[in-house]
Write a structure and sequence with these properties.
Layout lengths: L72 H13 L68 H15 L2 H6 L5 E14 L14 E2 L7 E4 L4 H18 L10 E13 L2 H5 L3 H10 L4 E7 L5 E16 L6 E11 L17 H4 L1 E10 L3 E10 L2 E10 L1 H12 L6 H18 L10
Antiparallel strand pairs: 1-3, 1-7, 1-10, 2-6, 4-5, 4-8, 5-6, 6-7, 8-9, 9-10
Helix pairs in contact: 2-9
Length: about 450
C-alpha cells in the first residue's frame, strides 16, 4: 500500500510546463513558400481516407449511476467482485408497519443531536428532512429535451469527484480510518484565494463560480473575515436558529452551542511517535512531513479535552468572484494522540512566550440534520485576532452514503455535497456587500 499518495505535493507545481503565448504558425505571417504559379504541376496523389475517430466521452463515476441503471462492463466487474468478497447479510423477516391514523396536527419534530465530538457533541444518525421539503424533479420549462428529472451542477459534481477519489475510493485512506483513533475530516472554509506575487485576491477572466487548477498557479488561501462581517454572520445564523424552532416552520431544527477553548501545539518526539499505531507511523514516515500535536483545553476550567495530529490529504479551491469569498474544500486526517503530554515540548517561536503562542478560540457552532456543522470562530493569539467561518461534514454520514453509491444502492451522496455547496453560497451572499448603483 503506497501511503505516500495520500499527500498533495505542492512542489509539483514548479515543474509543470507553462504554455507559451506565442504562436509560430500564425495565419497572419507571410508564407515562405513561393507562388504556385511558378511551379510545375505536381502529379496527382490519391490519399487513402482515414476512418473518423469516435468522439471520446469521459466515463461517468460509479456513484453517479442511478439505481437500476446499467453499468459498463468494467464497473460491473468491480461491483460483482465487491459483492463476492462481502459476507452474506443475515436473513431479515419482512415487517409490515400499520399505517398510523391521520392526525389533526403535525407531530412534534424531534430535536436533532449535534454532530461534532470535538465541541462536546455526540454523533447521531442523519435526520431526514420534513416531508414537505422533499426534492422534486424538474418540471415545465426547466425540463430539458432529454426529459431528465434532475440535472447536476458542474461545480458540485467536481467536488463530488474530488471527495470520492481522494477519500472515499482511496483504499489507503479507508484502511487508516478503520482505526477508531483516526477520524476523516471533510471541511469547507470561507476565505480568499490570494496571488502570492501581488498579495491581492486572485482575479481573472472568469466572472462566475468555478473550480481552479491551483497546481498551475502561485496562490495561497487565507481564511479570515472582518469584525463587522463576523458580527453580521453571527446575527444571521442566530436568526436561523430561532426560525427553525418556530412550531409552524417546516424545516429542520438548528442546534446551537457556544464553546471557549485554548489550543497549544507541541513537537512530536520519538516516544510520542512510537506510541502511534503502526499504520500512522508508516504514513508520517513516508510523507516526511513535520508533525505537531494540538492540545485543546477548556478555557475556563483548564480541563483537557483532546490531543490530535492533523494530517492534510488534499485541498480543492473554488473561486467565487461574484461574492467576497472563495472556498477551500479540505480533506484531512485527525489522529488521536494518546501519549503523555507532559513529556512534549511546546512550540515557541523566536521572541515569543508559551502564553503568547496559545490560541484562544471563541466558537459558535450551528448544526442540523446530523450532517452539517457551521463554526463561526474568533481566534486570539497574543495581540492578533482572526475571524474564521467553516463548514464540516459528518464523516460517518458521508462515508455511509458514499459506500451505498459504491455498491450502486440508493444513496444521498451527491445530495449531501450539493447541500454543502448551497450552504457555502447562501452564507457568502449573506455577508457580501451589495454592489453600489451608479448615480444613486
Amino acid at each position: 500500500m503506497d501511503i505516500s499518495a495520500l499527500v498533495n505535493h505542492d512542489g509539483d507545481a514548479a515543474v509543470l510546463p507553462r504554455r507559451s503565448l506565442s504562436n509560430p504558425h500564425s495565419i497572419s505571417a507571410p508564407s515562405p513558400v513561393p507562388s504556385t504559379a511558378k511551379l510545375p504541376t505536381p502529379p496527382k496523389i490519391v490519399h487513402k481516407q482515414m476512418p473518423l475517430k469516435r468522439k471520446r466521452h469521459e466515463p461517468k463515476p460509479i456513484w453517479a449511476y442511478r439505481e437500476g441503471e446499467e453499468l459498463p462492463p468494467n464497473l460491473k466487474a468491480q461491483q460483482e467482485q465487491r459483492q463476492q468478497s462481502r459476507p452474506p447479510a443475515p436473513a431479515v423477516q419482512p415487517h409490515v408497519q400499520a399505517q398510523p391514523p391521520p392526525q389533526p396536527h403535525p407531530p412534534p419534530r424531534p430535536h436533532p443531536s449535534p454532530m461534532a465530538e470535538r465541541n462536546g457533541h455526540q454523533p447521531s444518525e442523519m435526520q431526514m428532512p420534513p416531508q414537505g421539503l422533499s426534492a422534486h424533479g424538474l418540471v415545465g420549462f426547466e425540463r430539458p429535451v432529454s426529459n431528465d428529472a434532475q440535472i447536476y451542477d458542474d461545480v458540485s459534481r467536481n467536488v463530488c469527484d474530488f471527495i470520492f477519489s481522494t477519500a472515499v475510493n482511496n483504499e489507503a485512506v479507508r484502511k487508516i480510518v478503520e482505526d477508531p483513533r483516526v477520524q476523516l475530516e471533510v471541511e469547507a472554509r470561507w476565505g480568499q484565494i490570494v496571488d502570492t506575487q501581488t498579495g491581492h485576491r486572485l482575479r481573472g477572466f472568469w466572472r462566475t463560480e468555478c473550480v481552479l487548477n491551483t497546481a498551475a498557479l502561485e496562490v495561497k488561501f487565507e481564511s479570515t473575515m472582518t469584525v463587522q462581517q463576523h458580527r453580521r454572520m453571527n446575527m444571521y445564523l442566530n436568526s436561523q436558529v430561532h426560525k427553525s424552532k418556530n412550531a409552524a416552520a417546516s424545516r429542520p431544527l438548528i442546534d446551537y452551542r457556544h464553546t471557549y477553548e485554548t489550543d497549544l501545539f507541541y513537537e512530536l518526539d520519538r516516544p510520542g511517535f512510537e506510541s502511534l499505531s503502526p499504520i500512522v507511523q508508516h504514513l508520517i514516515r513516508e510523507t516526511g512531513s513535520r508533525q505537531r500535536v494540538r492540545v485543546t483545553r477548556d478555557k475556563n476550567t483548564g480541563e483537557f479535552l483532546r490531543a490530535i495530529i492533523k494530517h492534510r490529504i488534499g485541498n480543492l479551491e473554488i473561486s467565487s468572484p461574484r461574492t467576497e469569498w472563495d472556498y477551500r474544500i479540505g480533506i484531512n486526517l485527525e489522529i488521536e494522540f494518546s501519549g503523555p503530554i507532559d513529556n512534549l515540548a511546546p512550540v515557541v517561536e523566536t521572541g515569543k512566550t508559551v502564553e503568547s503562542m496559545q490560541r484562544q478560540k471563541d466558537r459558535m457552532s450551528y448544526s442540523w440534520l446530523g450532517a452539517y456543522q457551521v463554526d463561526l470562530t474568533q481566534v486570539t493569539q497574543g495581540t492578533s485576532k482572526n475571524h474564521e467561518l467553516e463548514l464540516e461534514l459528518d464523516s460517518a454520514v458521508l462515508l455511509a452514503e458514499a459506500d451505498r453509491a459504491r455498491r450502486k444502492e440508493a444513496n444521498k451522496f451527491e445530495g449531501l455535497i450539493n447541500g454543502m455547496m448551497n450552504n457555502l453560497r447562501v452564507l457568502s451572499r449573506e455577508i457580501t456587500t451589495p454592489p453600489t448603483v451608479a448615480g444613486a
